[in-house]
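A quick aside before the break. I want you to see a complete sequence-to-structure record at least once, exactly as it would be stored in a machine-readable document. Don't worry about memorizing anything.
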Amino acid sequence: MTLPAISRGFHHLDEVLSLSGVAAFAMFSVLVAFIGIALGGFDTRLQTGFATISSGITVSMVFVLQHTQRRAQMATQLKLDELIRALPEADNRIVHIEASSNHELVALEEQRLQMHSELRTE
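That is the input. The structure line, written in tokens, reads:
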């Protein structure tokens, strides 16, 4: 499987797992597991198995969510960059501002505040 196929798979998995029915099923499963563990006298093996499975699912979902959020953020950033490039009066330095140092960000913010202040006084 290639990387784009894996990425699309993660995106599809995120879409499926964010459905309300899946959340309800997960809550029901946890409730059933808790009742099963309680009826089993809180057996250590059952608790350990449940904790291991829950931890594995949690870690996996953190990576899936991180991947899909980053992908969505990149798409949004590309759209915004395209809008900035389309405006003739826009400052092209803003297109890749996320890669700037903190000093550059502060300087650009001060420049923008000064420019807007001058525009208001005219």
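Two observations worth writing down. The CA atoms of residues 47 and 53 lie 10 Å apart. The radius of gyration is 24 Å. We'll return to this after the break.
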